[in-house]
Design brief:
Blueprint: H1 3-7, H2 12-19, H3 31-41, H4 45-52, H5 59-68, E1 73-75, H6 79-94, H7 106-118, H8 125-138, H9 142-150, H10 161-173, E2 178-182, E3 185-189, H11 192-202, H12 208-216, H13 220-223
Antiparallel strand pairs: 1-3, 2-3
Length: 224
């Protein structure tokens, strides 16, 4: 769903609050103009990269849960549990990674990963760029990165309720996660623009279940 289709249901006061700092002018501007301008800027690649790549966990996991959900939306009351389960899944599967595997050079990557996070307790843009280059050079997938973050020897990915609320509030304030009402239920949702930017940022290739969902959208006539 496009930004405009989601945002047009927002209250005027919520639109103005969301637009602050994102559009050039909101004082004295009518709500329709704010809606149009905001729809154009939310989800652009530079904004997504700057507000996602350098954030602390569970920022990535929150977005991943929404990204993988049907229509990229999850009921507001369900998101926390789904994020908790996703992190637990990473922690469980992380044990399958042998950090001493000489062919994958995981130990080199985790050494750089730890050094990056240890410095001032967060990930700076330059450090994130180094990790990205190193992942490419070592052919380490984004999922392998998450497994290593959750590995018991690394322990960079775990669920913390305070950090969950902090990152969720941040993503909402930046307009990366939006709110949408459907059939009397409130959902957190990613707009199509945000999804496209996340695909570019993460270098996403469609996994099998995502591919099947995509194919199901076409009927036999369109595929013939």
């Amino acid at each position: 769903m496009k930004n405009y289709e989601i945002l047009k249901h927002y209250k005027k006061s919520d639109l103005r609050r969301l637009a602050k700092g994102k559009t050039s002018e909101i004082v004295g501007i009518d709500s329709e103009k704010i809606l149009i301008d905001l729809s154009k800027v939310l989800g652009n690649y530079e904004s997504i990269r700057n507000n996602v790549e350098f954030r602390k966990p569970p920022n990535h996991t929150i977005l991943e849960v929404l990204f993988d959900a049907p229509d990229h939306r999850v009921k507001i009351e369900d998101l926390k549990l789904l994020v908790t389960k996703k992190i637990a899944e990473y922690q469980k599967n992380s044990n399958e990674i042998n950090l001493e595997d000489p062919n994958k050079k995981y130990r080199l990557y985790t050494a750089v990963l730890n050094a990056a996070w240890d410095y001032e307790g967060d990930l700076l843009p330059a450090e994130a760029n180094i990790l990205r280059v190193l992942r490419n050079e070592l052919s380490i997938s984004k999922k392998e990165h998450q497994y290593m973050m959750a590995h018991p020897q690394i322990k960079r990915l775990f669920f913390d309720d305070e950090m969950y609320r902090y990152e969720l509030e941040y993503l909402s304030r930046e307009g990366i996660i939006l709110v949408y009402k459907l059939d009397n239920d409130d959902y957190f949702i990613l707009s199509d623009e945000t999804v496209d930017s996340l695909k570019e940022l993460w270098g996403i290739e469609l996994e099998h279940d995502q591919f099947i969902r995509l194919v199901d959208k076409f009927d036999n006539f369109e595929l013939s």
